[in-house]
Amino acid sequence: MTTAFRNCLLASTMLVAGIASPAFAQQQTVPEADKPAESASEIVVTGTRISRPDLELASPVNVISQQEIQFRQPGTADDLLRNLPAIRPSIGAGVNNGSDGSSTLNLRGMGEQRTLVLLDGRRLVPYGLDGLTDTNNIPVALLQRVEVFTGGASSTYGADAVSGVVNFITRRDFSGIDASASYRVSERGDSQRFKADLVVGGNFADGRGNVVLAIGYTKADPLLHLDRKISEVPISSTTGAFAGSTTAGVTIFGSPSNASLGLAASSFGAVVNPSTGLLQTATANDTYNTNIGTYFQTPLDRINAYSAARYEITPGVEFYGSAMFTRNEIATQLASSGTFNNTYQLALNNPYLPTGIRNQLCTARSISAANCAAAAAVQGGPGTTGYIEVPVVAQRRFTEYGPRGNVFESQMFQVQGGFRGEIVAGLKYDVSAQYGETTQNQTRQNWGSFSKVQQALRAYRDASGNIRCADTTNGCVPLNLFGQNGSITQAQLAFIDLDAIINRKVRQTVVTGSLSGDLFASPLATNKIAFAVGGEYRKITAASQPDGPSQVQGEVLGTGARTPPDVGRYSVKEVFGELIAPLIEDQPFIHKLTAEAGIRYSDYTTTGGSTTWKAGGTWEPTRDLKLRGTYQVAVRSPNIQELYQSPVQGLGNLTVDPCAGTAVLSNSRLAALCVATGAPSNTIGSIPQPSSGQINNTSSGNRNLDVEKAKTLTLGAVFTPTFLKGFSMKVDYFRIKVTNAITQPAQADILNGCYSASLNPNYVNNAFCALIGRNPLNGTLNGAGDTPGVILGYSNLGRISTAGIDLGVDQRVLLDDIGIKDSGAISIGFNGTWLDYYRFQANPNSIDRNCTGRYSAGGCTNPRAKLRWNGRLTYDRQAFDVSLLWTHISHVSLEDPIGSILPRFARIPAYDYFDLSFGVRPTKNLNLNLTVNNLLDKDPPLVGSGVGGTAYNSGNTFPTIYDPIGRSFTVGARLTF
Prior knowledge:
Blueprint: H1 3-17, E1 61-64, H2 66-72, H3 77-81, E2 115-119, E3 122-123, E4 143-149, H4 154-157, E5 164-170, E6 176-186, E7 193-204, E8 209-220, E9 223-224, E10 251-255, H5 258-261, E11 270-273, E12 278-281, E13 295-297, E14 300-314, E15 317-334, E16 344-347, H6 355-364, H7 369-376, E17 389-396, E18 404-424, E19 427-445, H8 450-457, E20 459-461, E21 467-469, H9 490-496, E22 500-521, E23 528-546, E24 566-587, E25 590-604, E26 608-622, E27 625-636, H10 640-644, E28 648-653, H11 668-676, E29 694-700, E30 708-719, E31 727-743, H12 747-755, E32 772-773, E33 789-793, E34 795-814, E35 825-841, E36 849-850, E37 854-855, E38 867-876, E39 880-889, E40 892-894, E41 907-908, E42 911-923, E43 926-933, E44 968-976
Parallel strand pairs: 2-5, 29-33, 37-40
Antiparallel strand pairs: 1-4, 2-3, 4-5, 6-7, 6-44, 7-8, 8-14, 9-13, 10-11, 10-17, 11-12, 14-15, 15-18, 16-17, 18-19, 19-22, 20-21, 22-23, 23-24, 24-25, 25-26, 26-27, 27-30, 28-29, 30-31, 31-34, 32-33, 34-35, 35-36, 35-38, 38-39, 39-42, 40-41, 42-43, 43-44
Helix pairs in contact: 6-7
């Protein structure tokens, strides 16, 4: 914890401690429609800098009330927002392989980098080099409401609000004590989560000041794939059979080829037979269950503290400040580490190498029997007379190790201070500065060292019969790579062990100031025209510093490549202005006619100057009906990762490699193309299928990136009839088009563009083929750093477009109004999104991909349903409430199904989930709640392991969208004073 944060937190705590007699906690009301609940000096209106509660924006804002938060009892902000129709589930607790430890938001599915997350209208320091906000840092216990502004807000907040803004708004002027705790457990007794929060606040100086301190702790246990039947083993999306078995500890050779070894061709290579001491043709039963030890839901351990204070120094001058600190520990876990597809030099005098396999390798490498036998008897390492070693791809899971761990421990702090008030009546100012840091330490546990495995394989038996390493440095222990499960000892593991560490740090400074006020009234209106002008300076610096082993190509087993150090920075100076003008009021056919406009000019040190603007308005023919519309032109400057990321290898899902197997032998032009993309000619016909259904991807930044441009249109209506009390309906059409989009090509685009008979009928070695690099030893798309796989670079050549309709309906009926006395109220709420289309094209040569209602391992990744809705029915009265939430996800299908995927995995039917909530208030100060999630205990859909992106297709399903936990119960208590 830094000194600056400690001092700020200490000062806030002392203020709280100095309150002599705190008042009772204020009753928090749920704001209706889009109305803010704050006092005039602290109004937070999402989407504008103008703080007048009588003026409403033309862009749609969806509000998640405090009551809704209590119904859901979320552990994190991600739990609260994941199922909202306007938000596409992103990185969070449901992502294991591919998580960076954060939890992010993706409005409209346009990309997390195009969604801006705010806390009380202010930016939060990003989590990583991609500039995204980790919502695990949001103090959920202190939330008054959440506003989701989906009309695009770049002219108000800056370039990264292309899709909109999610604004978390905290409770204001809190006075008293609010203590709450909740506990969740699944019906099967797992997935436990405990959460406890304490909020203390009070007023001082006769109400001129207020201070609040919130402290919280959250601990969520993981859910293992083995704990649910659907994910006990990986299932092939092409055969429906197990993509592995529980057989462990086998060594599979991918090189030399089966043909060179005199064995039948196999997609799985050759395997050590411990009974015969020979290599034999491998089958699926010789592979490993890669779901052992892996997570469906990742664990979380979080401590957070938030403090805010304000003090009116003199009339018109108020100081305000806040400080927050969060420590998150999130772990992901993968199957046991191993040698994987790395190429090793295997000494023929290795004592653990069976004689039969040594002879097979010698035959395959054209080494004479005499030389082979002589090499086996050599007592020494490289340089010793007669010593011979051969290159092999020998894959052995280190099951004795246990799972590979990835522990992400991050610490975030941010401090802010400023002054606000009125210069004269109707003219307000707000000047503030903030500084924040995020520090992340990623520790890879039980992964292993490539160089130490190589050192341990160069072993021999000395004259005394002892097995020793040729190079004894660092306490080398010879490694038995060819035995069954359990043959690798703890001493052997201890030598090859490597816990690699990567440190990342992000710093953000923001200085902003604005003036807002009233100008004059239109001749046909009573309310005055409101304006806001201001300027902002932002500076972001981000760096990633891996330890030494991580920077060495392929040194950390299981990573496939080096993790290079990256650093980047940029700053931006901006000026902005907004205008909301009531033009006509209380005239025939025009109850209100309002126009609004905004403009922002940004000067980035990376991309230079650019302008964002918006124009819109509302027309209320009567008090019952409001028509609204906005048009916005936005630009987004690339973030540090998009600009400066060094080439890094990751993984992508692929079930069938076009160059694998024997079928390629009947197509000479395809075979030539496989060779042109890096496969050795002698491997054609025997290239194995992708290991564990995954291949290498290599991505990198591009310092020549320019801004991307977006155009956003929203048109809608709000109907609140005076003749139907408690009823409101909102309908909005949205359309977003991004050109010059900063994108990476889809893996499927590159592979199909090169190898597909329909897209490349003459099998020309084209630009797509130039982005493919195969393993130089066995021709696969797997391997260590010498196998780039599919190369995915950033460019400004993309196009993204989407459109749809949002519908919201609310009806609240007080039973007193219909003659049922003292019986409470019934509320019905509906919020849905119909997706007309979503299209993505990474570059002009790529497929213009239609992902509407689809999913795939290529560009569409996790399902993008055409229709999603939440419907809630609530009955409440003074002492208790009961509420039922209905979540609907329409059917989705595989993008352009290809013959290799089974039909039953090419479609997911519509899904409906029901959550039931009960609340009881036995006393004025005590609330008790029970939430039952997935009331009907609905299982997620089974689609196999190869139909979606690696991050989202996990456990043979899509756990970010479909619930893998099953029926669960959350009990909570809240005490206020």
